[in-house]
Amino acid sequence: MPNYRIDVNLSARKLRLYDGDTLVRTYPVGIGTIATATPSGQLHIVNKVPNPGGPFGAYWLGLSKPHYGIHGTNDPSSIGKRVSHGCIRMHNRDVTELAKRVPVGTKVTLHNG
To answer: What's the whole-model pTM score?
Structure first.
């Protein structure tokens, strides 16, 4: 059984999916603006919602810090930039792939550098 964990390097704007110590996949992400920065720390996925509506694209992966999540976007040009209100923004195809792999409870580490 896989032992997934997610590592988000905010300064590099990359989300890395690991199975144990093995890198499975790297995805580009958009992060919070300077005024609405994405928090650093150790979190975990608390829910998964397909097609959440609004600007959240194809999937919402809610994090243990209320009001924060990993989600898709209706604006793919925003990936790689500081544009969100603190959430981690992904291409819809990427967040859908991620959501199909990781279970609720998956550890998420958010850090700079």
So the answer is: 0.96
Catalytic residue numbers read 71, 87
Task: Transcribe 29-76 into DSSP letters.
Answer: -BEE-STTPPPPEEEEEEEEEES--GGGTTEEEEESSTT-EEE--S-G
Convert the pLDDT of each residue in 55-65 to its tens digit. Answer: 999 999 999 99
CA distances to 32, 33, 53, 54, 96 from 15, in Å:
14, 17, 23, 23, 14
Q: What structural domains and CATH numbers belong to the chain?
A: 4-111 (2.40.440.10)
For the chain, the average pLDDT equals 97
Question: Which residues, 6 or more positions from 105, have their beta carbon under 8 angstroms from its beta carbon?
Answer: 44, 45
